[in-house]
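Morning. Coffee machine broken again, so started the prediction first thing and wrote up yesterday's gels while waiting. Chain of 430 residues, entered below exactly as on the submission form.
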Amino acid sequence: MKRLLLFIILSSTSLVYSQDIYSELNNKKKQWVDSIYNSLSLEEKIAQLFINWVSPEQSDFDEIKKLVEVNKIGGLIFSIGTTKSHIEWLNRFQAISKTPLLVAMDAEWGPSQRLSDVFAHPWNMTLGAIEDNDLVKNISKRMAEQNKALGVNYNFSPSVDVNNNSKNPIIGNRSFGEDPENVYQKAKAYINGHKEAGVFTSVKHFPGHGDTDKDSHKTLPVINGSIKRLNEVELYPFKKLIDDGLVESVMTAHLSVPSLDKKYPSSLSKKTISNLLREEYKFSGITVTDALDMKGVLQDPNINVDLRAFEVGNDIILMSTDVSKGVNLIAENLKSGKIPMGKLSESVKKILSLKAKSNLDGLVEISSKNIVERVNTSKDTLLYSRAMESAITLVKNSSRSLPLIKDKKYLHVSFGNESTYLSKKLKKIY
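Came back before lunch.
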């Protein structure tokens, strides 16, 4: 009886904390996933792991078309353009793809980060200063609604890096702040906002990109510190969010973290991904590499980063510099038995399940009708105003100048218009 009770408790716990996307699908969607999977050749299954970059303003359309039509990659990460060009290219690529494409974006403060005519919501540092987490969730939900209107299923956000190095050239105001608990709470609100709108998120940059003065786009940054320190700071928000069962996807960073792995960067580290993230943290969701065209990961010319990334536990290979070579090398290692076929099956079915859960099993063309009006609304303006008002923070008050008190005179210096909101308020005080 005790064993039965223990089994029931463990089973219910695994359901609460499950990141197994496939298990959450209804039977019809599971059948779609299985059907698509079984219809693909080995090379086509491997190609599902690849998501490549596209910009309507900077990419060669025919090059991307080849990746979609010939290489049959699993998805695209859209970047610089306008709402019109974005939707036009998205629909054209979806129409020629054998399998519906995952449409991803780095949209940390909404798709305005990439598209010039979309309302821009506050960056994470501003959200981190807001005490009302429900407001943060509502802002995140609105960002996700913008994404959804543009056909974006998968947002590589939020950044849960703890901003504990003022010289950091790449994280800074992309972080919710320097307090690990506040970063966790704000990320939780952000993820829940996207969940309510039905857009997938990916926390990043695991195991934490905050405490460095180098940019992983240009070199390999080093994160020093003991395991104890990492657990208390860098890893803290990741672990808490995973324990909450909120994390659908984790982006792995190009970092040297000697206390975790002295040889390989985090994105290529079995110790970091398989041992820590998968086994110790029990994370079974999707792992995606940071962009594999970044210099931080291209340090060793003898390592094919596509192959290595998949070997150590990544599901999605982001922005490969040579998709064909990556597919062929992974295929060779699968055929020779160096990589178990079950690993490929697991990763591809996760990706197909994410597509099914994003309703790509019933793919419809994204409408551009009134799109500018739909992603620029009075609701956006109101949320932005509330965010700015709520984020005002008193950093220092050593002379106790605030709050202002009655029966005391104040000097107000105004540049330009003398009749300001502050001057009117001051007149009421004295």
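Strands lie at 50-54, 75-78, 102-105, 154-155, 200-201, 203-206, 249-252, 286-289, 317-318. Going to sketch it on the whiteboard this afternoon.
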